[in-house]
Specification:
With about 675 residues, the protein is of the alpha+beta class. Helices cover about 20% and strands about 25% of the residues. The N and C termini lie far apart (about 75 Å).
């Protein structure tokens, strides 16, 4: 026995632990390793975790199953195991599994149960960050956008409307993870409740109490539940709660001992835990790619482990914000498609110099697994691929909007149209003659987030949230005004996560409020996947375009020879001379490209979406200006390269000369 029963009760009283569930968990840590069953508890007397009765420290790394294709889960997890990690940490994005109310998806890349089982099979324990809110530079911090259907809802609070949805989600999700708890012979040793709540304005203890009761109801009293907050008393004040073990997060380069002192504000005894030790940092469009030197990361990691503390490295493998899943920060700054994070494993899962520096530090404190580290996955440059213009979004609107037009006096938001991602088209007619330049404006900064404006199919300009709230347009009374609005990702952190999309306030033309809108909800992904844009046999009819400055689709195709061993391989897609848009390969939404702003220039293309047995199709939605047409009648091309470029902006280069030297088939 570690302690007597009377001493246990005295310690529990001293800490004012009112939760019966927590007392049960603490008492369980008194059993020796010879006790029946598997146990994972907190030993407050010895300031440590105990696994099966033995003192235990975890060295963990973050990997988000939602950012890595299932095809590569095993590759990434094995590399993490070979680095010396004994645990991994992952978020559960609620909106990834319940994109529309009451419809749940746990299949394919969303099969988190398969991810948990694979982690266990490899020999990695799991620290599960169950939400309901996660942040993570993910759209709306993982909360579903449909929560905003009631505009007055207070997210992350004890608002009954919010809690009703949380309770319903957790009644589906939490029972799924219970069989994977360590006590039930699974890999999950701890479950986080909420995330960094001390950084949120609400400071609603009733909300945290509700979550604690909810998690205990579904998961039982034995599982370790914890919170994570910044390493400062002001964060822990609102982020911690009796019954939830408080941990902190902080990055390299600072005073490690001082940072852990902040944790002692909430937890005078118990294991020291850094739940987010930052190996890199996040990016925003228009800023340089974030980099943290390996030497700084290794030094601070060494100091953490020397103290006997537990650590989770965030991120160990960053991955990719495929599709529309990127988040944004406030004031509005959206994050790019890549979530490379300058992590020890690159976006493509390749071991970096930082990986081996970290592995060397870990080797000082525990025996490393025997055997070689898995190498980088092979990459292949498939070269330049010609694409041809199809039609503009406005011309194809009937093929893209399956629900048809909706009439409204004033603009409706994405949520009001029950569309949560992507693009919507707002159509109107000019009520007055604008033969001279006339201001079209969003006086209340209500374009969320970027709007592409045309009059009778002629490009007029771009309105952008916080940056461009007025442009001058020309046209005659009765001319068709089209405004394609792009949702560039919802704010994922702070008080502004209640982030509506679309035209969220009225627009004015001169001094007149525009009324009488026709609004199209666009399901571009389904149209691309199901071939509604253009049948393959019709591709040869497409001709090289005149210079195009309106949002338009471009189609291309290429063949990967099946006689070459080891193909297909991972690759990167580059957009020489293109401006900004979205791209799909074989119906898979790779994400957004924006080389004109940077820093990300190439998009990661995982091998599993490519085919050697069929034609590979590329669909490009260019929102501003393609590098083709014009006086030179230059062809359009995208380029597959074998190395990423995440820190730069692309100067325009005409690919025409190289294109005609390459032999890439344009398949009918």
């Amino acid at each position: 026995m570690i302690d007597s029963s009377s001493q246990l009760m005295e310690r529990a009283t001293r800490k004012m632990r009112s939760s019966v569930g927590l007392l049960a968990a603490v008492s369980l840590c008194l059993y020796s390793a010879s006790s029946a069953g598997r146990t994972f508890q907190i030993d407050y007397d010895s300031d440590c975790f105990r696994k099966d009765g033995d003192r235990f420290h975890y060295i963990s790394g973050s990997i988000h199953y939602s950012r890595v294709p299932r095809y590569y889960w095993k590759d990434r997890l094995l590399k993490m195991y070979m680095a010396g990690l004994n645990a991994i940490q992952t978020y559960v994005p609620w909106n990834y599994h319940e994109a529309t109310p009451g419809k749940y998806d746990f299949t394919g890349d969303r099969d988190f149960e398969a991810f948990l089982k694979l982690s266990s099979d490899i020999g990695l324990l799991v620290i599960l960050r169950a939400g309901p809110y996660m942040c993570g530079e993910w759209d709306m911090g993982g909360l579903p956008a449909w929560l905003l259907q009631k505009d007055s809802i207070v997210l992350r609070s004890s608002d009954p409307d919010y809690l009703k949805s949380v309770d319903r989600w957790m009644s589906v999700f939490l029972p799924k993870i219970k069989p994977f708890l360590y006590q039930n012979n699974g890999p999950i040793i701890a479950v986080q409740v909420e995330n960094e709540y001390g950084s949120y304005f609400a400071c609603d203890y009733d909300y945290l109490r509700h979550l604690l009761k909810l998690f205990r109801y579904y998961l039982g009293d034995e599982v370790v539940l914890f919170t994570t907050d910044g390493a400062g008393e002001r964060y822990l004040k609102c982020g911690s709660l009796q019954g939830l073990y408080a941990t902190v997060d902080f990055g390299p380069g600072g005073n490690v001992t001082q940072s852990f002192k902040a944790q002692r504000y909430a937890e005078p005894r118990g294991p020291m835990v850094n739940s987010e030790f930052y190996t890199g940092w996040l990016d925003h469009w228009g800023q340089k790619h974030s980099v943290i030197k390996k030497e700084i990361v290794a030094k601070s990691l060494d100091e953490i482990l020397a103290l006997g503390a537990n650590v989770n490295m965030y991120m160990f493998e960053g991955g990719t914000n495929f599709g529309y899943w990127n988040g944004a920060n406030s004031p509005y700054r959206p994050q790019p498609t890549s979530y490379d994070y300058d992590a020890p494993l690159s976006e493509a899962g390749d071991p970096t110099d930082k990986y081996f520096s970290i592995r060397e530090v870990i080797g000082k404190y525990k025996k490393l697994p025997v055997g070689p580290v898995l190498p980088a996955t092979p990459k292949f440059a498939y070269g330049l691929i010609q694409v041809k213009k199809l039609q503009s979004v406005a011309e194809l609107v009937d093929s893209l909007s399956f629900s048809g037009p909706v009439k409204s006096v004033y603009p409706l938001t994405f949520v009001e149209m029950k569309q949560y991602f992507g693009y919507m088209l707002y159509r109107n007619t000019l009520p007055i003659n604008c033969t001279e330049a006339t201001p079209l404006a969003s006086p209340q900064n209500g374009v969320h987030d970027r709007a592409y404006v045309t009059v009778d199919g002629v490009f007029q300009g771009i309105l952008e949230r916080n940056k461009i709230t007025s442009i001058n347009i020309t046209g005659r009374a009765g001319s068709q005004l089209d405004i394609l609005v792009e949702n560039m990702g919802r704010i994922n952190y702070g008080k502004d996560i209640h982030d509506s999309k679309g035209l969220v306030t009225n627009l004015t033309l001169a001094s007149n409020i525009l009324t009488g809108w026709i609004i199209y909800s666009l399901n571009i992904d389904e149209a691309v996947t199901n071939g509604h844009l253009k049948k393959p046999q019709e591709l040869q009819k497409l001709t090289a375009p005149a210079e195009v400055k309106v949002p338009s689709f471009y189609l291309g195709a290429f063949v990967i020879p099946n006689g070459i061993p080891d193909l297909p391989q991972d690759t990167y897609l580059k957009f020489p001379g293109w401006s900004k848009g979205q791209v799909w390969i074989n119906g898979f939404n790779l994400g957004r490209y924006w080389p004109a702003r940077g820093p990300q220039i190439t998009l990661y293309v995982p091998a599993h979406i490519l085919s050697t047995s069929a034609v590979n199709n590329i669909t490009v939605l260019e929102l501003e200006k393609a590098p083709c047409g014009g006086e030179l009648n230059a062809p359009c091309a995208v380029e597959f390269v074998d190395a990423p470029l995440l820190n730069g902006t692309a100067a325009y280069t005409n690919p025409a000369n190289r294109l005609f030297k390459k032999k890439h088939s344009w398949h009918e």
